[in-house]
Write a structure and sequence with these properties.
With about 90 residues, the chain is of the alpha+beta class. It contains five helices and three strands, in the order ααβααββα. The chain has one domain: Orthogonal Bundle (Arc Repressor Mutant, subunit A). About 60% of the residues lie in helices and about 15% in strands.
Length: about 90
């Protein structure tokens, strides 16, 4: 039987991904409105585009959101791990 438990380093990567209030805002917004472009996220959160882009990049790097090209836009959705973290944070 294979142990499917994540290593402490893998867990650290996911947790560091949400260790910022802006990234938490982005995670919750993308969970609520799947398929948002970066510009939409920045406008809805009243944030600087470059700052939001960097936080979205870090969330993607942490494996919590997916980026998908739709024409010239990049749209965002929660990854399976992002959904798990989101569910956990909603109950926290």
């Amino acid at each position: 039987m294979t142990n499917s438990r994540k290593t402490s380093r893998q867990l650290e990567r996911h947790l560091k991904g949400v260790a910022n209030h802006r990234r938490l805002d982005i995670l919750f917004l993308v969970a609520e409105k799947d398929g948002l472009a970066l510009q939409d996220i920045a406008e809805l959160l009243h944030g600087n585009f470059k700052t939001i882009a960097e936080h979205a990049r870090r969330l993607a790097q942490a494996g919590l959101i997916n980026k998908r090209y739709k024409g010239r836009l990049v749209v965002h959705s929660l990854s399976p791990y992002g959904k798990i973290i989101h569910r956990f944070l909603k109950t926290f």
